[in-house]
Design goal:
The protein is an alpha/beta fold. It folds into two domains: about 120 residues, Rossmann fold; about 190 residues, NAD(P)-binding Rossmann-like Domain (Rossmann fold, 3-Layer(aba) Sandwich), CATH 3.40.50. The strands form two sheets. A seven-stranded parallel sheet has the order 8-7-6-9-10-11-12, sandwiched between helices. The protein has a five-stranded parallel sheet with strand order 2-1-3-4-5. Strand 4, helix 3 and strand 5 form a beta-alpha-beta unit. It binds nicotinamide-adenine-dinucleotide. InterPro entries: D-isomer_2_OHA_DH_cat_dom, D-isomer_DH_CS, D-isomer_DH_CS1, D-isomer_DH_NAD-bd, D-LDH-like, NAD(P)-bd_dom_sf.
């Protein structure tokens, strides 16, 4: 089947081509994001393969459907950027990669915790500058801390397991209780109670209307003063401006994020020679207790291999008329 692969980088090409060897699809790689303006590139392709910052809104979906596209193959777990209602109305099938390596994202979240606590980003630069002073690098023992896991699905569970290994007390908030987390000794509490009790809060739930801006001026009032907030899930779980105010007041003691609500215009590109116009982002990254990475939580060899293999298998299922277990059904 002819597949237009959008937002593609060298690594996508490498791993998708390797996974495609025995499937024989015709993969054509496009670097631009899929938007209403670039939808024309998908003309004549029955399948479009997209990523997290592609814009699969009503306008784009109608454009690509009118050009013959029938399948949207997301090479991600999240699908909040796809208008599922419109896709269903247009008779398009949407598939995704529900699990490729929860360890990759959970380990990255733990990396942010360690980096912020022990200020490894500052320590690294100091030593390279022959500055061996320790002032300003004071951390705290993670052992014995209370860690709040918001969303205790696959990634949240892995994160909880690692933090359990550190000797933390685990609190969880989710619409369902995960039996494996309960076995670890996790105590489920209401969201605001979790914010009030946890020293470290890590977000691992999907972006839905019910979770949009769950970190906002009101919920931040409940946060334990000086707590660490980690977001490796989706940027819009967090009202960034509210977090900036909470950092300035000392309510948020540390903020680590692998995602940003307006990341689509900046992440995954080298903008080092450009003047970034997003003042909120620039202000956020100016604070000494903030670490931002550019949506790299998923970026391990194991995860990328799994994403490529599942994506190609999903496309083959569709091409051969089989029911794909990874189809996303509009609610
Ligand atoms: P999952 O479906 O296994 O777990 C999500 C959990 O969130 C579920 O237990 C679900 O019940 C819970 N949830 C749903 N609605 C909720 C609500 N209103 N309040 C609290 N909890 C709620 O998903 P996962 O594989 O663990 O992935 C979690 C998220 O991580 C994804 O949705 C995606 O946004 C993000 N993610 C980020 C990266 C990255 O590279 N940074 C990579 C993959 C996934």
């Amino acid at each position: 089947m002819k597949v237009a692969v959008f937002s593609s980088k060298g690594y996508d090409r490498q791993f998708l081509q390797a996974a495609n060897k025995e499937h024989g699809h015709e993969l054509v790689f496009f670097e631009p994001r899929l938007t209403p303006d670039t939808a024309v590139l998908a003309a004549g392709f029955r399948a479009v393969c997209a990523f997290i910052n592609d814009q699969l809104d009503e306008k784009t979906l109608r454009a690509i459907a009118s050009q013959g596209t029938k399948l949207i193959a997301m090479r991600s777990a999240g699908f909040n950027n796809v208008n599922l209602g419109v896709a269903a109305e247009l008779g398009m099938t949407v598939v995704r990669v529900p699990a490729y390596s929860p360890y990759a994202v959970a380990e990255h979240a733990v990396g942010l915790v360690l980096m912020l606590n022990r200020k490894l980003y500052r320590a690294y630069n100091r030593v390279r500058d022959d500055n061996f002073a320790l002032d300003g690098l004071l951390g705290f023992d993670i052992h014995g801390c209370t860690v709040g896991v918001v969303g205790t699905g696959k990634i949240g569970q892995c994160f909880a397991q690692i933090m359990n290994g550190f000797g933390c007390n685990l609190l969880g908030y989710d619409v369902y209780q995960n039996p494996d987390c309960l076995k670890m000794g996790m105590k489920y509490v209401e969201f605001l109670e979790l914010l009030a009790q946890a020293d470290i809060v890590s977000l691992h739930c999907p972006l839905l209307p019910s979770t949009h801006y769950m970190i906002n001026p009101d919920s931040l009032q409940h946060l334990k003063k000086g707590a660490m907030l980690i977001n490796t899930s989706r940027g819009a779980l967090v009202d960034t401006r509210a977090v900036i105010e909470a950092i300035k007041s000392g309510k948020v003691g540390y903020f680590g994020a692998d995602v940003y609500e307006e990341e689509a215009d900046i992440f995954f590109e080298d903008l080092s020679d450009t003047i970034i116009q997003d003042d909120t982002f620039q202000l956020l990254q100016s604070f000494p207790n903030v670490v931002i990475t550019a949506h790299q939580g998923f970026f391990t060899r194991n995860a990328i291999e799994n994403i490529a293999e599942t994506t190609i298998a999903n496309i083959t299922d569709f091409a051969q008329g089989r029911v794909c277990p990874n189809q996303v059904i509009s609610q």
